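User: Small ask, check this?
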Amino acid sequence: MSGGFTSAHFIYLAQSIGWTLVLSMLAFVLGGIGGFCVMLARISPRAWLSRAALVYIEAIQGIPLLILLFIVYFGLSVYGYQVPALVAAGLALMVYSSAYLGDIWRGCIEAMPKPQWEASECLSLTRWQTLRLVIIPQAMRLALPPTVGFLVQLIKMTSLASVIGFVELTRAGQIINNSIFQPFLIFGLVGAFYFVLCYPLSRWSQSMENKLNVSNR
């Protein structure tokens, strides 16, 4: 064991939070764009498109995120594509997020009362106009709590990117622990950092869900 935990180690851990947030936001934003497309396909009146989206959702949800990371990072290298760890982790998390967010948002869209659709048809609105002007604005309120809840899970799941060498919070903790071997201290701090990142979002999601339940009574 070489030395003990110093302020330099603490700063290194704190700086790695930035990369955890970068990866989380990259996956969430790109996954959100993909999830919106998946949601549209899932609620499409075209049966083949809806079934294709359902197969995609079930396939991605049935594959562990760790396997997706391995497929993107190691699988692409077999074909000569050397993908940086950040790009590989971002792509894997984006695909993972798109399936879950698409399914969450699909449920919120389908939870809208049927008379909303019927009233829009009476006003001669197209399906896209109905979605854009009537359904989606209302569904967004319903979708916000589970979406924020999924973001909390996504932040914690970025720790899996450490297995492909991406230096986020967990990987930074591993690097420091390999040099000074103080796992209780180091990973206790790593856990504390994750708690600081995730707890406010969890409380916000719970607060929105409580308000939504009260307003629906």
Summary: The chain has a mean pLDDT of 91. The chain is about 80% helix and 0% strand. The two ends are 60 Å apart (CA to CA). The domain at 7-215 is CATH 1.10.3720.10 (MetI-like fold).
